[in-house]
Amino acid sequence: MATPYVTDESGKYIAATQRPDGTWRKPRRVKDGYVPQEEVPVYENKYVKFFKSKPDLPPGMNPDDAALARQQQQQVSGGTDSAGLSKTAKRNMKRKEKRKQQNEQEASVEVESLSQDMDGMNIAAEEVRVNPDGTDLAAAAVEKAKKIKNLRKKLRQVEDLQQKVDCGELKSPSKEQLDKLERGEALRAELQQLEGHL
Length: 198
Description:
Elements lengths: L4 E4 L2 E4 L13 E2 L16 H8 L9 H14 L10 H34 L16 H31 L7 H8 L1 H14 L1
Antiparallel strand pairs: 1-2, 2-3
Helix pairs in contact: 4-6
């Protein structure tokens, strides 16, 4: 971005500008030949300048001939850039291509089997099944599964407590612990009843 200079009878200067916060910068007088910092070109040593100015082609070679030679070289090498590669690099490239082909074959086999599975399926509108009392069967099944999980957890706690009492780790169980031990049979019966209805 070029800096806007203003010239009048007193000389050349940079006009006053407004800062983002709303305050104003004073106009600055500029001497002849002054180049602002952002407009100073980046220094390049002679080697950088030489390589930037160096042509891609040998001196005197026609660019059309170079393009033709590149096309012929690609056709000879089979369309890949393996002409300048070592034996190991070529071997790795062949392995990579082989792996790619295997992955494509596996993917096509998976797609075929999936499409056959999909053909065998019967797609119909999902119906909400309802119990005779008007409740949703799916929601009831979810509730039943939650209840079974909860009962199994309570039974596990009862069995752990029973083991602690049996091995003498818990010498005097509290009233709540004794109540929990007594409820073990009722929990088992309820769990069997729920699992029987599934």
